[in-house]
């Protein structure tokens, strides 16, 4: 049986999909009896030279050539953006065509509307490629965890920033140099804001929080910190006790109907399963009642892993029943503050003497709150004191901080990371 | 719609399944409309006291009360063993009842026969719980990787030995003490041979190699080394360069139609994603064309994770189509030797002087083969020299070893691990 695909977008991922289809089609045919072929592809311009493109694929600039073609069984959207793409997907779902999309921004911002439409039409809307394409996290959450109860998720889902932070920590690169290298390798775009400011990771977290907890949230509701303010000294300081800075998303159930969701640089300690997630790799940790801690690790960037996620979804859509979005909790959740959190405090001092006196001044206030500490010479011949707190409430943390920053020696020389 | 289950075995996993069903049934009912209930359970004795057991569950010692009951929709086998269980499963499949089993030994030794029977009967035979129950590796391989080409798998799939090796390395426990502790925690059985000799890990590797490469293999065809010979000094020595000893299975495609499969203690270096897999946890690394390296991590022991794998399979069987075993390559593979391998050599010497001279004697032969080295004082006031080789062929390794062991200073004081 031949399955004809209408493809919106023939950029990096779209072209990658054609490569993978050519490589895998015989095997897929042998094991499933299905023969996948791209009939029509929407492109922005017909005049561009596309060496190696199968001439049997019809190129068009008119979306209706896909949407109104009754021969097309299935629609793949890898054009991106939240404008036209939304209309194409709605139109395809309305005409009962299954849709596979890699469009993270669209699923994050309009996913609920599209999922409802898909469920109403009883056709699959699959988006594995939208979150950590190299990791089958969406399918695994939908299938394996529907008999379990998830309490929290956390992880590294932005390959660009993880690459930069790894290069800064392991090879001593400056922020600028690390960014330039990421751009040269194709991990970062010319305008890197989406990645370095944490928006890309936040979109992925929004998608996961909806899938697992039924939480609807928007970018401006969330606490998002990027990696732009991280200094070389911060990176050196957290190394003192074996830690690393990583841009992490965290989604925690903090009450019967409350979810805390954040994106920020956090300290990963050496005994964390996330401590070996380097460079452009991604990983997601899931905590659940039946399994405890599980982790899924894979590549976080690249056309091939993303195209693989799209292709796996294509096969799933063609072989699966009408199964679509799965919300785990029986009622939808609301957004909440985290309840308790451990922190890594970095105290910078110009001389070794003042850091020593700071330690002494701190002793009384911090008694009982600090679980590990170390000190370290920073790049300006000054000292850094690194303190790890217990898990404390935000209120308690604010109170301690207020007391501490009133002391002269600590003024303006205080860096804080959750950990 | 009510789905009635016939349960073979009411031990740890069977009881765990009843607990999970009680906890999750409302949620499953809400999201799928399916109401799962255990109608009949086969037990070895009816007189045993079973506090808390739902009185609605019929207990029996006659398997025909399950197999011949037309009301039973689905059979779960968690009794274990390769004797009676095989007959029950064959009988259930023949009467078109889907079967879910946690029986690793049976699937490893008779899986192909049972899978063929299931495919012929067009009913699912699912066995997620048989390999690393806390990790959805079977389902993920069957679904996500059928559009990819896997080249190798490796990992830690025996929680008992990983717990023991972690305790020996991190807390300085002796082998005997670590084993005793594992037994007290319920990770190891009274007779720990299956775990410590590597047979349990080998059975799991056999199952994975069949699933991914269509390789049929038996325990006596494989190179299996357990952890019984590992000494405290070995563990201390590999620590010199940050390494750890773990019991690993490896499955490598080494030619068009050849697969190398082994189980042995190997050195895991600090930059490996497996380096943070401690205590009873498991992890499986997959290398494939589209994704590169991916890893799946989760708990490797315990009734709850195993019962979760069984329950997830139950839901899959009840909602899925007749989909069953998926072989990835178009033709079945044969067993092969590994082609190249890196090694960690530990040279023990009674005095510091002799180890130094050994290094000098080694220089000529090893020139170009050694990539890292370090030395270390062992527990008997002697010295250990630790060398890591490049990836070399078995033949080359044998030749080098032969030359080296002819030297007086190295005689009988040589420990080798793949890494």
UniProtKB/TrEMBL annotation, chains A, B:
Q: Where is the signal peptide?
A: none
* Catalytic activity reported: L-homoserine + NADP(+) = L-aspartate 4-semialdehyde + NADPH + H(+)
Q: In which pathway does it act?
A: Amino-acid biosynthesis; L-methionine biosynthesis via de novo pathway; L-homoserine from L-aspartate: step 3/3; Amino-acid biosynthesis; L-threonine biosynthesis; L-threonine from L-aspartate: step 3/5
Catalytic site = 204
Q: Which PROSITE patterns match?
A: HOMOSER_DHGENASE
Q: Which residues form the Homoserine dehydrogenase catalytic domain?
A: 136-315
Q: Known Pfam families for this protein? A: Homoserine_dh, NAD_binding_3
The residues covered by the Aspartate/homoserine dehydrogenase NAD-binding domain are 9-128
What is the uppermost EC class here? Answer: oxidoreductase
Q: What is its EC number?
A: 1.1.1.3
Chain positions recorded as L-homoserine binding sites: 189
Q: Which UniProt keyword terms apply here?
A: Amino-acid biosynthesis, Methionine biosynthesis, NADP, Oxidoreductase, Sodium, Threonine biosynthesis
Q: Which GO terms describe its biological process?
A: methionine biosynthetic process; threonine biosynthetic process
Homology family = Belongs to the homoserine dehydrogenase family.
Question: What is the protein named?
Answer: Homoserine dehydrogenase
Organism expressing this protein natively:
Fructobacillus pseudoficulneus
């Amino acid at each position: 049986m031949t399955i004809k695909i209408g493809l919106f977008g023939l950029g990096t991922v779209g072209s990658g999909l054609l490569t993978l289809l050519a490589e895998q089609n015989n095997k897929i045919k042998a094991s499933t009896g299905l023969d996948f072929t791209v009939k029509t592809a929407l492109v922005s311009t017909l005049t561009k030279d596309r060496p190696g493109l199968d001439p049997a694929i019809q190129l068009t600039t008119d979306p209706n050539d896909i949407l109104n073609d009754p021969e097309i069984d299935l629609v793949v959207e890898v054009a991106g953006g939240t404008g036209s793409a939304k209309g194409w997907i709605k139109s395809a779902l309305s005409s009962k065509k299954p849709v596979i999309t890699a469009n993270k921004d669209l699923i994050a911002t309009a996913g609920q509307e599209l999922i409802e439409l898909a469920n109403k039409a009883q056709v699959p809307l699959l988006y594995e490629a939208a979150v950590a394409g190299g990791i089958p996290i969406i399918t695994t959450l939908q299938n394996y965890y529907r008999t379990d109860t998830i309490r929290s998720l956390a992880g590294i889902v932005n390959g660009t920033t993880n690459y930069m932070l790894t290069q800064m920590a392991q090879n001593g690169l400056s922020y600028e140099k690390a960014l330039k290298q990421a751009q040269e390798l194709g991990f970062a775009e010319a305008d890197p804001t989406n990645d370095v400011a944490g928006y890309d990771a936040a979109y992925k977290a929004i998608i996961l929080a909806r899938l697992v907890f039924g939480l609807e949230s928007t970018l401006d509701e969330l606490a998002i910190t990027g990696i732009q303010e991280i200094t070389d000294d911060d990176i050196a300081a957290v190394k003192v006790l074996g830690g690393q800075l990583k841009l992490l998303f965290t989604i925690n159930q903090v009450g019967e109907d409350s979810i805390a969701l954040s994106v920020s640089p956090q300290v990963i300690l050496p005994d964390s399963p996330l401590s070996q997630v380097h460079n452009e790799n991604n990983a997601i940790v899931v905590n659940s009642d039946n399994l405890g801690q599980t982790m899924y690790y894979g590549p976080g960037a690249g056309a091939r892993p993303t195209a693989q996620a799209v292709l796996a979804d294509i096969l799933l859509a063609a072989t699966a029943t009408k199964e679509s979005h799965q919300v785990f909790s029986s009622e939808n959740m609301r957004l909440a503050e985290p309840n308790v959190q451990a922190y890594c405090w970095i105290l910078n001092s110009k001389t070794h003497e003042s850091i020593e006196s700071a330690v002494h001044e701190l002793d009384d206030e911090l008694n009982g709150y600090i679980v590990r500490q170390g000190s370290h010479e920073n790049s300006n011949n000054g000292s850094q004191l690194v303190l790890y707190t217990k898990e404390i409430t935000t209120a308690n943390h604010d109170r301690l901080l207020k007391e501490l920053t009133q002391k002269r020696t600590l003024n303006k020389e205080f860096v804080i990371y959750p950990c």
